[in-house]
Amino acid sequence: MQILSLLSKKRSGGTLSKEEIEYIVNGFVREEIPDYQMASLMMAIFLKGMSKEEIIHFTQALALSGEVINWTGIEGKRIDKHSTGGVGDGTSLILAPLVAAAGISVPMICGKGLGHTGGTVDKLESIPGFKTNLPIRQFIEQVGRIGIAIIGQTNQINPADKKIYALRNATATVESIPLIASSIMSKKIVEGVEGLILDVKIGRGSFIKKKTRAKKLAAFMVEIGKVFGIKTIALITNMDQPLGEMIGNALEVKQAIDILKGKGPRDIKELVFHLGSLMLMTGKKVRNIKEGEKVLKELIEKGKALEKFKEMVIAQGGDGQIINNPDKILPRAKKRIKIQTLESGYLQSMDAREIGIATMLLGAGREKLNDQIDYAVGIQLHKKVGDRVEKGEPVATFYVNNEKKLPLAQEMFLSACKIDRKRARKISLIYEEIR
Fold first, then answer.
1. Is 108 exposed, middle or buried (0-12, 13-18, 19+ CB in 10 A)?
2. Residue 424: is its pLDDT beyond 90?
3. How would DSSP label each residue in 372-405?
4. Are residues 369 and 310 in the same domain?
5. 188 an active-site residue?
6. Is 226 a residue of the active site?
7. Which of the ends of the chain has fewer CB neighbours closer than 10 A, N or C?
8. Residue 434 belongs to some domain of the structure
9. What is the pLDDT of residues 227-237, one digit of tens each?
10. Catalytic residue among 82, 112, 285, 383
11. Could you read off the pLDDT of 364-416 as tens digits, one per residue?
12. 183 a catalytic residue
């Protein structure tokens, strides 16, 4: 096959065959196809799209580019959850131990944060000693022993997707629906899960801005799950404003611990209980959402979810004392700076994307995949859409170590918060399910 003729074919809107897609993916992993030619293909896919068959073949080629996890001898239903990315979205930190405490095995392979969105791997790595680069054998053993493990992508697992993900960010093709669908679902095929709950975000802080596109992406992923024997449910949720109160790695870990203790903000708990109930339903532990929420709330009240989180932290090399004294164990920023409003009124909107970028400017995120991040810094929100604010009242606290980009971050944050005299409606968090 000739890579140039395949690039020309896709650029013209043609359909690539299964063999052609396998040739491209395997050639890229073996470095026979250079970055610039794969970048050309990513842009052609971004502009021309892919057929359903192409997406399925591309997903399979990504998944088979490395090892596929074998769970032979490990008992229990394996159910995972995946989010398409947002700001303040620390649900996996809460959800995984909570559902594992209910008797479901939760093997998660997560990514690092990029741009305005955070990554579960970065959040967990803010816990001193916590290892997200477990060998596959240890990952399998840990899930079999305690029912939960969360790791990042390794060179053994789905190397094609890992390389392509970095390239997509560098070529402004992250938002392509076929590329998002194949990237997410290829990781789940590799995981060998039996059930998957997807949190597909729409709104200002998401890669997807319109509900029609979100439904299209959700439908593609549900279809891919069906083809590969993974029972998949997609939940479409709002990402116009940040989720929860904390944005930043160590800050979101502390918030997760608070929620597992029965505290924490209402919106993120609402989403966790709904996603968790769907996971329990998929694992045949409960019959409906109401029953699932009851089970999950009892696990928090009895301290079993918190204990499971501690078990995971210790198993992956972290300090188990974090649940008793997170402020002492987690990295702390040198300064806390109150961000005050310049007028009184009601908070009408919060642009989650701009707030995510402001958090990145403080050092909590990365523009490029290899950028170093500061685990301690971030933003704590004191107000959300619909809340009343008074002139001079703090709407947020910035946790800061390096003040170099503080003025720009502050300006961006305040411009992202729109205040008006009229009372604003609270944002609806959950839109619909796609099965």
1. buried
2. no
3. ---TT-EEEES--TT-EE-TT-EEEEEEES--TT
4. no
5. no
6. no
7. C
8. no
9. 999 999 999 99
10. 82
11. 988 776 788 999 999 999 999 999 999 999 999 999 999 999 999 999 999 99
12. yes
Residues 340, 279: one domain?
A: no
> Does residue 68 sit within a domain?
no
pLDDT at 260: 98
- At residue 101 the predicted structure's pLDDT band, cuts being 50, 70 and 90, is very high
* 221 shares its domain with 363: no
Structure tokens at 200: 């597909």
Q: Are residues 320 and 344 in the same domain?
A: no
Identify whether residues 293 and 381 lie together within a single domain: no
Question: Does residue 56 fall inside a structural domain?
Answer: no
Say whether both 85 and 162 belong to one domain. yes
Same domain, 89 and 205: yes
Using an 8 Å Cβ cutoff, are 100 and 147 in contact? yes
Q: Tokens representing 230?
A: 């993974």
Is 54 contained in some domain? no
Q: Count the residues in the chain.
A: 435
Identify whether 82 is a catalytic site residue: yes
344 catalytic residue (yes or no): no
What distance in Å separates the CA atoms of residue 174 and residue 166, rounded to the nearest whole number?
A: 9
Contact 244, 265 (CB under 8 A): yes
CA–CA separation, 222 and 201 (whole Å): 15
- The Cα–Cα gap between 422 and 23 comes to 58
Task: Please report where in the chains the tokens 């001193």 appear, as a residue.
Answer: 128
Residue ending a domain, among 310, 326, 342, is: 326
CA distances from 296 to 180, 280, 286, 293, 347 (A): 30, 9, 11, 5, 32
| This prediction's pTM | 0.93
Residue type, 107: P
Structural domain containing residue 44: 3-49
Tell me: do 176 and 322 sit in the same domain.
Answer: yes
Residue from 161, 240, 267, 351 carrying the catalytic annotation: 161
> Which is catalytic among the residues 65, 92, 182, 183?
183
Q: What phi and psi, each to the nearest 5 degrees, are found at residue 388?
A: -85, 135
Q: Which residues does 82 contact at the CB level (< 8 Å), separation at least 6?
A: 184, 187, 188, 196, 197, 198, 199
Which of 10, 77, 78, 187 does the annotation list as catalytic? 187
- With residue 202 as reference, give the H or E element that holds it: strand 195-202
Average pLDDT of the chain is 94
